[in-house]
Design a protein that fits this description.
The chain has helices at residues 3-10, 20-32, 51-57, 61-64, 76-89, 141-151, 153-156, 163-178, 223-229, 247-256, 289-327, 347-355, 367-370, 376-388, 431-473, 478-515, and strands at residues 36-40, 46-49, 91-99, 105-116, 123-131, 182-188, 194-202, 213-215, 234-236, 260-268, 271-280, 332-337, 342-345, 392-400, 403-416, 419-429. By secondary structure, the protein is of the alpha+beta class. It folds into 4 domains: 23-131, Beta-Lactamase (2-Layer Sandwich); 140-312, Beta-Lactamase (2-Layer Sandwich), CATH 3.30.450; 329-433, Beta-Lactamase (2-Layer Sandwich); 435-514. The strands form 3 sheets. The protein has a 6-stranded antiparallel sheet with strand order 8-7-6-11-10-9, with helices on both faces. The chain has a 5-stranded antiparallel sheet with strand order 2-1-5-4-3, with helices on both faces. A hairpin with a 2-residue loop joins strand 15 and strand 16. Helix 6 runs antiparallel to helix 8. It starts with a helix and ends with a helix. It comes from Methanoculleus sediminis. Residues 22-78 form the PAS domain. Pfam families: GAF, HisKA, PAS_4, PAS_9.
């Protein structure tokens, strides 16, 4: 690793907030894991730590967030060396001398894994650990192996796209660590009348049961099935609680070729949808309470990953529906998060970008990087919507090269957990509309001027006619005077008709202004 990378990991700056996507993926895993887990940002500082790690080291969360992760080591130099190895190889596992808050030391088994932020591709670190007290003689080797298997699981389920191979690998590690001959995931169908194994690891010589289905009598299912469906962890050894043989359990063990079995319910959305089974075939085989606790933690980790996978599927289905609706809208529509990163854009926005010669692959990019000519006032408008939580409508002129556009925009906040998480922007290019409106205004103004001039001209015509009529009445020729009088009256009649037409035109002009 180069010196720049080392200096970044040694830096003690306050870390950036864990990305929303990463936090959502890890939340259930880190909260339910019995292993100590912390997330290390790209500067080498602790961004988050779960309760197990804090208890192990004796810290409060506020005391470690933003601090270099190397403070967890007794020797910071050893910590930097472990980090270098993890960054170089992608993962590192080993036992280190850890330093508690009270300056005491203890051995800790640590696994460091590199994780890429799906938004920025930055490399983060996931640290998973368990206490490995070399002086403790009462911890059997099998339990240590099981602890290590559970501690290595969170990093394996970071990417839900590879959840199936991650489950298979985890079942194998857990089976070998706890001494089982078979480990599997069995799921009930919706009516709970069928049970089938979807994932399985079995020791060599064991007949696989994966893919087989078992009919369950809905009216009278085996007692262990009822207990699993009620969310209870069940240990099957062929004997009921009062010491008498239990037929359903014996048949189950015979079918699996086992002498004891452990079934831990898989709960999704509050209901048991199946269970993880662990079979043993040795004489006197039993599951210790400590092993059951560790295996339950492993099941919680897998359940969290499955739940995230289902949530992502539902989100993608909803996102696809939203995209269809957005693409049917002729106005440009965009959705940005609070950092102004584009999350969705409809076809109209893409076509607008293409028309302006801009980037068309816009999702996941900064709005101002996609539309670089947006004025600084645009950022202020978004900040105002995010801060106030109120919609905002604006109309402004922007310039791209030699082209000037007038955009009318409405920004609508979208809330999550009481806070603005996204902003939907609906925009329309009203340049042509404004040009037409300007032409209309100019035309109406010219018509008004013409009508005013016409009214003045009518008055200017009547005044000379009155003078002509007065002069004609002074003539001694009555016949000529009468002819002049008739022509003056004729002209006055024409002017009266023009006045009526002027009034009608005035009313029509007012109607156009009001309703056009």
């Amino acid at each position: 690793m180069d010196s720049n990378t080392t200096s970044r990991l040694e830096a003690g700056r306050t870390p950036e907030t864990v990305p929303d996507v990463t936090a959502a993926m890890l939340q259930q895993v880190i909260e339910t894991s019995l292993s100590g887990i912390c997330i290390v940002d790209r500067q080498g500082c602790i961004a988050f730590a779960n309760a197990s790690l804090l208890a192990m080291w004796g810290y409060d969360l506020s005391e470690v967030v933003g601090k270099p992760v190397t403070r967890l080591w007794l020797s910071p130099e050893e910590g930097r060396d472990c980090i270098d190895r993890a960054l170089f190889a992608g993962q590192w596992t080993g036992t280190v001398a850890a330093r508690r808050r009270d300056a005491s030391s203890f051995p800790s088994r640590i696994t460091l894994s590199t994780v890429r932020d799906p938004e920025t591709a930055d490399v983060w670190l996931l640290l998973s650990c368990i206490e490995a007290d070399a002086k403790r003689k009462d911890a059997p080797g099998r339990r240590c192996s099981l602890e290590q298997a559970v501690a290595a699981m969170p990093a394996r389920f970071m990417d839900t796209a590879g959840i199936d191979p991650a489950i298979d690998d985890s079942l194998e590690d857990l089976g070998r660590a706890c001494g089982a001959c078979r480990v599997y995931l069995a799921l009930f169908n919706d009516p709970r009348t069928l049970l089938g194994a979807t994932h399985e690891w079995c020791r060599a010589g064991q007949a696989p049961l994966r893919g087989e289905s078992r009919n369950l009598f809905k009216g009278d299912p085996p007692r262990w099935v009822v207990r699993v469906l009620e969310g209870e962890t069940v240990i099957v050894n062929g004997v009921s609680g009062d010491g008498r043989p239990e037929r359903g359990e014996r048949e189950f063990l015979e079918r699996h070729g086992a002498t004891a079995a452990l079934m831990i319910p898989l709960r999704l959305n509050g209901a048991a949808v199946g269970f993880f089974g662990f079979d043993m075939d040795g004489d006197g085989a039993r599951f210790a309470d400590e092993d059951v606790a560790l295996l339950s933690a492993a099941v919680h980790i897998i359940a969290g990953a499955i739940d995230r996978k289902q949530s992502e599927y539902v989100f993608r289905e909803s996102e696809g529906l939203y995209q269809i609706v957005l693409d049917a809208i002729t106005d440009t529509v965009t959705v940005v998060d609070t950092r102004l990163t584009l999350l969705l854009a409809n076809d109209a926005f893409i076509a607008w970008c293409e028309d302006l010669g801009l980037e068309t692959n816009v999702v996941g990019k900064d709005l101002f990087a996609v539309v670089p000519f947006l004025p600084p006032a645009t950022r202020q408008l978004y900040e105002r919507v995010i801060r106030t939580g109120r919609s905002l409508t604006s109309e402004r002129s922007i310039r791209s090269g030699d082209r000037t556009m007038i955009l009318r925009e409405m920004r609508i906040p979208i809330f999550e957990h009481g806070e603005v998480a996204r902003v939907v922007t609906v925009a329309r290019d009203v340049t042509a509309q404004r040009e037409v409106e300007d032409l209309k205004s100019k035309a109406y103004a010219q018509i008004e001027r013409n009508m005013e001039q016409f009214a003045l001209l009518a008055d200017h015509i009547r005044n000379p006619l009155q003078a002509i009529m007065g002069r004609a009445e002074l003539l001694d020729d009555a016949e000529t005077t009468e002819k002049i009088r008739q022509q003056v009256q004729r002209i006055n009649g024409i002017i009266d008709q023009l006045d009526e037409r002027w009034g009608e035109s005035r009313r029509l002009s007012m109607f156009w202004r009001k309703y056009s």
